[in-house]
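During the second half of the funding period, the structural biology subgroup turned its attention to how the target accommodates small molecules. The most pressing case was pyridoxine-5'-phosphate, which had performed well in the primary screen but for which no bound structure existed. We therefore specified the complex as follows and requested a full 3D prediction, including the ligand pose.
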Amino acid sequence: MKPIQLGVNIDHVATIRQARGTSYPSLIAAARQAIEGGADSITVHLREDRRHIQDRDVYELKNILDVPLNLEMAMTDEMLGIALDLNPAYCCIVPEKREELTTEGGLDVAGNIDRIKLVCDKLQQSGIRASLFVDPEQNQIEAAHQCEVSCIEIHTGRYAEAVDEGSEKLELSAIRDSARLAASYDMQVNAGHGLNCQNVEAIAGIPQIFELNIGHSIVSQSIFDGIKKSVVDLKALMLSARK
Ligand code: PXP
């Protein structure tokens, strides 16, 4: 069995660049350091408002990197067109609201089966691994299965933000149940959002989870340690949680 995989999200390297409209810090250099530290793939979210990642970034990363690129995107016609043209290895469909600070909750797959299935079919017919970002809820996993998607990413935000031990346990148990259910349908199970060195082990220890996508905590820690060491440290915790 493959060891648990880490996708490093570098959106917030672009946030720093966009804050001043400079050409630095370089996303390519950041991605290369993340890969040296053990990133198995690089994730970027091309938001509709282009607040951090720009169109040219996704093409540059796709052309230069030799690890899979995971494009996070809303399921709009514009984004679908870009994804089909770019042809990244992976695409993760996320809900998107312009005013939000970050992705706030999973997709309502159950309420949008026809549209989601159409988008996923188009991606999958192009050889792109499509994944749906969903809350750890049974009806959403069942709906993802109905869309015939091969992969889901479980939103770990509620677990990461739990304010006491009791709610953390409840959220963890919902993530475990969802991972088991999705795996029983032969879907690949990924997870992410809000994960860091303090809370990653319990999630990485869930045997059905194939890949974690982590961004903000890595870019934050890299202010002190650099990107490579921040990735090395986080990946070591993920791998040791599986032993
Ligand atoms: N997975 C998805 C689908 C996301 O939208 C995000 C945030 O961009 C992440 C993972 C990573 O979350 P964080 O930056 O909190 O690690």
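Two results from this model are relevant to the next phase. The CA atoms of residues 37 and 228 lie 4 Å apart. Residues 9, 11, 45, 72, 92, 94, 102-103, 133, 153, 192-195, 213-217 surround pyridoxine-5'-phosphate (CB under 6 Å).
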